[in-house]
Write a structure and sequence with these properties.
single chain, 93 residues
C-alpha cells in the first residue's frame, strides 16, 4: 500500500521561502519588493529552477528578517516529482 502524502510531507517538500510567505501571509510580490527583485525571480527560486546569487540570498534573508537562512536556501531541492525531466535524468546517471 502506498502512503498518502500528509501535511508534514507537503511542508517538508515546500521551498523555505514559500513556507515563510504562507506562514506570514505574504505574496511573491511583497517578498520580491522587500528583496529588490522581481516576482518572476521569486517564483523561479520557489520552483527550484533558479538558485539565488549570494547577493540575492543576502537580500532574501534580510527580507525575511533572518527567518529563512542561507543554509535553507542552499540545501533545498525540489522533490523528484517536481524536477524537470532533464534534472531527473542527470540525477540517475
Amino acid at each position: 500500500m502506498q502512503k498518502k502524502p500528509g501535511p508534514t510531507d507537503e511542508a517538508a517538500s515546500e521551498h523555505p521561502l514559500r513556507a515563510y510567505r504562507r506562514k506570514h501571509g505574504l505574496s511573491q510580490d511583497a517578498i520580491a519588493q522587500a528583496a529588490a527583485t522581481t516576482k518572476a525571480t521569486i517564483s523561479r527560486i520557489e520552483a527550484g529552477s533558479l538558485d539565488p546569487t549570494m547577493d540575492l540570498m543576502r537580500r532574501l534573508i534580510a527580507a525575511t528578517r533572518g527567518r529563512v537562512t542561507a543554509d535553507e536556501l542552499i540545501a533545498w531541492s525540489p522533490p523528484p516529482q517536481q524536477q524537470s525531466p532533464e534534472a531527473a535524468d542527470e540525477a540517475t546517471t
